[in-house]
Inverse folding.
């Protein structure tokens, strides 16, 4: 990739000044000048106001020329943890919703999970968009584009392969500025895979995660919210009896009386409270982990009933609906001091009084549902991650349901795909109504194609391995494949089974998966429609896996 040239750029900025909307396509404008700096692999743009009053930004984009080749592959990073993300051929079409699917998504409020409310999908082969970073791969050469910060607004990277264009958009809806506004800091580099990603994270000054490979257990995929003290005790005993080193035992959703009321424990399920559970985990030599959605409160929660003024509201004063989970939920506004104090207090009790070592923080995208307070979605999301990191201090964070770039360097582990399902294929409704659906096929895809973040942004969490025969609709070959892929590409390996029910073969795979091995990832790519080939080294021995991503079947 050649150095980006000012001669190849076209601007289009839309803004509002003095109640009038203007479109500007030149560097020098009536109310705003654009200052450009293009050097050392960083392309920066700054807006300089010529007027004394605030200017409200509506949209900003710029176009660069790029010569796509017939065999070029493009990678698009989805909006948040759960959004499907992979390499595409340049004649493919980005996953998007049909008109009927869009109608159903709006009707059922499933559009809350993604970018559907502020990014228009082209729905044309060869036209793609993704968030924060993207690359074009020509054989083994990666042309990487990445935002150095999303505090100015989410960076939407568009590839129009039909017109040989790269279009960089900034989601600046809601931003009003005076004097100056740094609107873009774009890093670009060409080279070998590991080299370009190392340079990108170095340019962001993101320190490598302090954590390394961890393995553990979560209650969720076996019991979902139907957990209790006896279940936890029994599974804790079974795990400790395997003789394997288990780092983390995580309690998932179901211990609290309502989402949002984190300190109100269901005493029928956990009569001795959550501190006693953490103590039991520690006695087995494991770290105690616990799940919460710290920004979310479900309908009917005490927090929402008693403090409706703590929540994000739109310009008409209406509560912003954040998703259908738990019968519907809303998001606390961390800019509200009382709400922020409440969240901070919950963490203080969970981490310091109860003694948990790791918190899995879920549904974090709610912080960036809408722009408000003259801040973009991206700025709000970055500030939310700063706040949560400060609340948790030196304890461990597993992020989930979060736009990834704001989580870079802020979480120790991060989910990089959707929830794994109990069957391989996605449900029809989920397939057609949003891209953040529960789906094993897409969990595996994201695990492979977000691999470059592992060990740079955080430790990748590919979600769970399920080896059991009960309460699952995948055959053992499919379950074994998930386990292999998670071990190769993940650095947080969780199971969610009753290990005391494993047969000899299942126990053998479990021990093999949890055993420390030296993994070196060499390559992973589609070699045909639905056919993925992974090449890696394990303890110095080169190996490969070829499988059908659509069926979950390995090709020998």
């Amino acid at each position: 990739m050649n150095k980006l040239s000012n001669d190849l750029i076209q601007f289009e900025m839309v803004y509002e000044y003095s109640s009038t909307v203007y479109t500007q396509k030149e560097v020098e404008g009536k109310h705003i000048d654009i200052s450009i700096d293009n050097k050392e692999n960083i392309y920066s743009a700054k807006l300089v106001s010529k007027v004394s009053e605030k200017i409200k930004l509506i949209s900003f984009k710029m176009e660069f020329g790029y010569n796509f080749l017939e065999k070029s592959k493009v990678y698009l990073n989805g909006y948040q943890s759960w959004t499907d993300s992979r390499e595409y051929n340049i004649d493919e079409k980005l996953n998007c919703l049909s008109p009927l699917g869009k109608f159903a998504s709006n009707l059922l409020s499933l559009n809350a999970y993604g970018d559907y409310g502020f990014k228009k999908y082209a729905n044309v082969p060869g036209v793609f968009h993704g968030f924060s970073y993207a690359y074009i791969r020509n054989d083994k050469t990666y042309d990487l584009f990445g935002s150095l910060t999303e505090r100015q607004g989410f960076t939407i990277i568009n590839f129009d392969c039909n017109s040989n264009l790269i279009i960089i958009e900034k989601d600046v809806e809601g931003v009003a500025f005076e004097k100056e506004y740094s609107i873009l800091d774009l890093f670009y580099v060409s080279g070998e895979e590991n080299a370009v990603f190392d340079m990108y994270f170095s340019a962001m000054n993101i320190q490598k995660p302090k954590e390394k490979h961890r393995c553990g257990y979560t209650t969720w995929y076996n019991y979902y919210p139907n957990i209790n003290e006896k279940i936890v005790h029994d599974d804790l005993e079974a795990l400790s009896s395997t003789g394997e080193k288990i780092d983390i035992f995580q309690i998932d959703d179901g211990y609290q009386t309502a989402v949002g009321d984190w300190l109100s424990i269901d005493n029928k399920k956990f009569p001795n409270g959550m501190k006693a559970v953490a103590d039991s985990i520690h006695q087995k030599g494991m770290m105690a982990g616990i799940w919460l959605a710290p920004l979310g409160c479900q309908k009917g929660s005490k927090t929402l009933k008693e403090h409706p003024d703590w929540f994000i509201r739109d310009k008409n004063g209406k509560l912003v609906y954040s998703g259908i989970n738990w019968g519907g939920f809303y998001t606390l506004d961390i800019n509200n001091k009382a709400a922020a104090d409440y969240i901070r207090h919950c963490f203080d009790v969970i981490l310091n009084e109860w003694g948990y070592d790791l918190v899995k923080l879920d549904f974090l995208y709610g912080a960036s549902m809408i722009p408000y307070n003259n801040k973009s979605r991206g700025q709000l999301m970055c500030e939310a991650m700063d706040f949560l990191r400060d609340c948790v201090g030196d304890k461990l964070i597993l992020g989930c349901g979060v736009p990834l770039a704001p989580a870079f360097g802020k979480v120790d582990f991060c989910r990089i795909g959707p929830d794994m399902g109990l069957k391989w294929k996605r449900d029809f409704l989920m397939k057609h109504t949003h891209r953040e659906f529960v789906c094993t096929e897409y969990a595996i895809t994201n695990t492979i194609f977000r691999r470059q973040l592992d060990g740079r942004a955080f430790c990748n969490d590919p979600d769970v391995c399920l080896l059991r025969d009960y309460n699952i609709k995948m055959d053992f070959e499919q379950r074994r494949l998930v386990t292999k892929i998670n071990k190769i590409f993940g650095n947080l390996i969780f199971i969610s089974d009753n290990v005391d029910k494993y047969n000899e073969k299942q126990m053998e795979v479990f021990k093999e998966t949890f055993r420390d091995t030296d993994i070196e990832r060499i390559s992973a790519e589609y070699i045909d429609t639905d056919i993925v080939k992974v090449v890696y080294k394990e303890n110095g021995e080169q190996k490969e896996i070829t499988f059908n991503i659509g069926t979950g079947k390995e090709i020998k």
